[in-house]
Amino acid sequence: MRPATALSVVSVILIVKAVLIGWVTWGRAQMLGVQSSAGQAGLTIATVALAIALVCGVAAVVLRRRDRGEDA
């Protein structure tokens, strides 16, 4: 598997995880009717996962463009 493809896959997985963690954390807080520290921790984890996913996505795009430039 090419590095750009692997980074794209990692990016998609992390974005899905971040959305699910955020959704579950928000839903749990709504069901309990409180904003607990665990809810804030979950949202922090989701934000970090999303940031890493975006960095992986950008790196994948850069690698793809560089590979295309070398092939030409």
UniProtKB/TrEMBL annotation:
Stretches that traverse the bilayer: 42-63
The species this protein belongs to is Mycolicibacterium monacense (Mycobacterium monacense)
Q: What is this protein called?
A: Transmembrane protein
- The entry's keywords: Membrane, Transmembrane, Transmembrane helix
**Superkingdom, taxonomy of origin:** Bacteria
